[in-house]
Amino acid sequence: MPTVTDLTHLTAAQMADGLAAGEFTSVELTQAHLDRIAALNPVLNAFLQVDTDGALATAADVDSRRAAGEDLPRLAGVPIAVKDIACTQGIPTTAGSKTLEGWIPPYDATIVTRLKDAGMPILGKTNMDEFAMGSSTEHSAFGPTRNPWDLDRIPGGSGGGSSAAVAAFLAPLAIGSDTGGSIRQPGAVTGTVGAKPTYGGVSRYGVIALASSLDQIGPCARTITDAALLHEVIGGHDPMDSTSIDAPVPHLVAAVESGKSRDLTGTRIGIVRELTGEGYQAGVQARFDESVELLRQAGAEIVEVSCPHFQYAMAAYYLILPSEASSNLARYDAMRYGLRVGPDGVDAPSAEQVMAASRDAGFGDEVKRRIILGTYALSSGYYDAYYGQAQKVRTLIARDFEAAFEQADVLISPTAPTTAFKIGDKMEDPMAMYLNDIATIPANLAGIPGLSLPSGVADEDGLPVGIQILAPATQDQRMYAVGAALEALLAKQWGGSGSVLDRAPDVAATASNGSVTGAVSEEAK
Amino acid sequence: MSELSRDDVAHVAMLARIQLTDEELDRLAGQLDQIVGWVGQINEVAADDVPPMSHPLPLTNVTRADEVRPSLTAEQALANAPASELDRFSVPRILDEE
Question: Between β-strands A80-83 and A122-126, what pairing exists: parallel, antiparallel or unpaired?
Fold first, then answer.
């Protein structure tokens, strides 16, 4: 019988195999994760809600169906965490906002229904930047999540809770959402794998909207195989989402299997000139160069491509996102749900006054900043100069990608310009925070898929570094195949289990040493 | 290029139905002015002949058959309401008293 630690440290694929072979039950597996969450979440603050009863009930159900000889989906019995942006019937869902504190959705998001249909116990809901606005999970109304590699550092954002949970073995898999890099960048700074599918590849029905033309749901995992397994569960057409692609999910797991042992001769890999070099931390650049060399040695043809309009991607993104967000977040009007407070000293206030007071009390600084910026960009007299112009830039970015994909099958870059920064370091400087997403944002503007996998640790600080692989729209299998090839090359070079997480400090030991500065609860608003 | 004043921010906040405190206004006005100046760089890209791209996918309306389907009960729909009475949402006054 494996120990608790052994169970939580398996990959999701190994868990699925172990369950199928009867080596352990889903109840044992789920309980092992719940125990680890109970021990470490007070320090990490990765989960906002833990659904112990629900997770164990699903696990017991899967165990009895398996015992009865039922043919079950591959991941049946493997537990999962869900970013608090997806609606879960009966389980509070907040999107990291005080506005939605205590809100209990009366329905499930389509992805949650698919997890349930696949027999996956849902451990709980993970912490995130409020309404997914941020790159550090410091903008959660419920306190920051801590990076398991260094508790004084950020786990990335906005999906820092999901990535930290996966990195610290609180969950083998998690759901994330990526509007400008919120799956890939947290993956990079926590040493895990994160994939943003092609826009429309995974249903967004029941997912709290940030910027509808950019938002994409995707998997957080520790291996490329695990990410592909989860992607296949949640992907595919959904008639409830008008932006859902009406085509079957690509064969991603098969692509990973073929990629693992693939000779890369004939594969053209493009380095985006604008996404490397200046502005990138030395250790990040060094790990990137090393991965490129491994790919070259494995037979890939490395070409340099230029995407000249990427220099305007950040600015266009920070107009388009707030504009769409200001519209999407208009629904938080304190009338039908959400926080309602009256303005001070007003008898019988009007609906308008209650709305304004409630939105001031319910939204954090970053959300207010972006709503006001978006409202400004959409306002009369400024629309053409800002929002309209940003949409033209979006066309130029998409054309840059088209030209680049004529020269290369996939594109690669570092996922984030630096390793995880310290909690609090960029809170007062929104511009500095925004620049962290420089490499991930172009993919959201164009709707193409992107994936981040660990490429090692930076020499100067020992913190994990991610490498990003981008593919043309609907060619998700291509990025998984190249990702699997690179993962295998890196694993061979690193030895051991081949996982960068082998080099992470033992978070359980660090937590019990009390070396973390300031308890999470003290920082929670 | 940007000149977003404190008054402009207060006006836009009012349009967005966010009542800011004086202290929030002071802080946000400075930050927003900097951000608006920075995003203004997109006007450097000469793009009169470039069509705007609003969405990565061509969008079509999705319709469904006009048939009765199960829906939320009144109790479920009102469960998260800040206030309700007689199976209805209870809201602050919408019209002026005059």
Answer: parallel
What would the mean pLDDT of A429-445 be, rounded to a whole number?
Answer: 93
Residue B67 C-alpha, separation from nearest chain A C-alpha, in angstroms: 15
| CA gyration radius, chain B | 23
State the Cα–Cα distance between residues A442 and A308, nearest whole angstrom: 12
The answer to whether A386 touches A444, Cβ cutoff 8 Å, is no
Q: Tell me if A191 sits within 8 A of A504, measured CB to CB.
A: yes
Q: Which of A104, A431, A473 sits opposite B34 (nearest CB)?
A: A431
Quickly list DSSP for A147-179: BTTBTTB---SSSHHHHHHHHTTS-S-EEEE-S
For residue A213, cis peptide bond before it (omega within 30 degrees of 0): no
HEC letters along A196-229: ECCCCCECCCCECCCCCCCCCEEEEECCHHHHHH
| Stated pTM of the model | 0.96
The DSSP string of A431-443 is HHHHGGGTTTHHH
- From the list A210, A354, A129, A377, the residue with the least C-alpha distance to B90 is A354
Answer whether B32 sits within 8 Å of A373, measured CB to CB: yes
* CA A475 centroid distance within chain: 20
Cα–Cα distance measured from residue B62 to residue A460, given in angstroms and rounded to the nearest whole number: 52
| Contact between residue A440 and residue A468 where contact means Cβ atoms under 8 Å apart | yes
Give the tens place of pLDDT for each residue, B5-56.
999 999 999 999 999 999 999 999 999 999 999 999 998 886 789 999 999 9
Rounded Cα distance between A313 and A297, Å, is 33
Which position among A158, A177, A203, A323 bears the catalytic label?
A: A158
Question: Does A331 contact chain B (CB < 8 Å)?
Answer: no
Instruction: Confirm or reject contact between A315 and chain B (CB < 8 A).
Output: yes
